[in-house]
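Record 1 of the preview.
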Amino acid sequence: MLSGVKETGRDKIFLVCNYIYVFLAFAIVIYPLIYILSASISDPKLVASGDMWLWPKGITFDGYKRVFENTSIWIGYGNTILYTVVGTTINLLVTLPAAYALSRKDFVGRNFFMGMFMVTMFFGGGLVPTYLLVKDLGMINTMWAIVIPSAASIWNIIVSRTFFQSSIPKELQEAAQIDGCTNMRLFIKIILPLSMPIIAVMALFYGVGNWNSYFSALIYLNDTAKYPLQLVLRQILVLQEMAAQGGGAIDTSTAAALNSKAEIAALVKYAVIIVATVPVIAIYPFLQRYFVQGVMIGSVKG
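->
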């Protein structure tokens, strides 16, 4: 509240309700994170029985040990880092120039091109035609099948265009052109340095999307040595759960072995979730300032 302004009873009630709402929202968001972290280092028997519901019990690091002993995890990490870096770079190289061009009022035909872009948000070729196209281009079982088909997001282009329209003064562009600055030099030397908020936002959006992506790899990659981390983790969980759910007539010793495998699978499941999400969580604080600023500027005005 502003100094010197007296709060009314309704203001106080509204403030209390806000605090209650924020606390409840925080609890809803933080509980799954604490639970998964605790479950990843807890005895799987206590997790399955429900005795562990918040803080870890029967602490064990066998889940992490089994995850990191698997060499395919490290290969998957390397592949995912490669796909994320290359993919995000391509995303930015496509999105930012396209958004800037569409933000220029002197760009002839910009409404037509914007309309064509908008059509792709509502209509797509489908999975089979896309697969056939990727196959005809010779990109099956290569990194390019992962990064090229998703090179640009129309929604991100629209947000970036809005940022350029609302945040870059037209007079600045006109002054640069009067001084003999070409469009390319204007974009690289002047526009991009002033656009760090939206660049950080786009890098975060695309980076998280590339990091978590697994469906494209599942469709286009045949070589397990090229699998990204998400697909490697999915493969590990599926194999362990299948082993734990073995069917048919079994004796007591076999049942005990299968039960042990099921417990290990549950322990590994939570460990791999932490392993897969920690890098993104670690990077986000460094981009948070730009992220908030870029989203607010790029989304308020249309």
